[in-house]
Design a protein that fits this description.
167 residues, 0% strand
Length: 167
């Protein structure tokens, strides 16, 4: 019985640690993204895509036709989509409903920020910029919640419980 429980505990510990690392990495990326966004908003002239430009053309212009800081901001935002998806997959594998809900909120917020950023490049409206900033704040809060509520000690308690049951 112990040999069956041990791999499951080890796998569960890896999932928890992976989710924690993923969440911390996302927070660091989001803080960098926020700083870049402030710089773009204050000091960069946005590429002209026209007020009728699509989101994809606005993104394309940000990466290829805009200043370097805007290109880095757009690419990092796109990488955050992958980071958020990775966190959601880890939460689903972990099978705790609250982690799935929180990582889903985080991923949706990243998508909202990405779309708002593309809209901001397309239309230059302050509402798009505000939406991007608020979505970023919600995402940071979501990942911080995972780090706060899912402490490393939970893995140790799970391992201790499985060892005691198997003994």
């Amino acid at each position: 019985m112990t040999s069956v429980a041990a791999p499951s505990t080890r796998a569960g510990g890896k999932i928890v640690n992976g989710l924690r690392v993923n969440s911390f990495a996302a927070i660091v990326m989001l803080l960098i993204e926020f700083g870049l966004g402030v710089g773009v908003n204050l000091y960069v002239t946005l590429p002209s895509t026209g007020s009728g430009g699509s989101l994809s053309s606005a993104f394309r212009e940000s990466v290829s036709g805009g200043p370097a800081i805007l290109a880095v901001h757009a690419v990092l935002g796109t990488l955050l989509l992958l980071t958020g998806t990775s966190a959601l997959v880890r939460a689903i594998v972990f099978r705790r409903r609250w982690t799935v809900v929180v990582t889903t909120v985080a991923l949706v917020s990243i998508v909202v920020a990405w779309i708002s950023g593309s809209k901001f490049v397309a239309d230059g409206k302050s509402a798009s910029s505000l939406s991007m900033a608020l979505a970023t704040a919600i995402t940071i809060l979501s990942y911080a919640l995972i780090l706060f509520v899912l402490p490393k000690s939970e893995v140790i308690r799970q391992q201790d419980a499985n060892v005691n049951v198997g003994a």
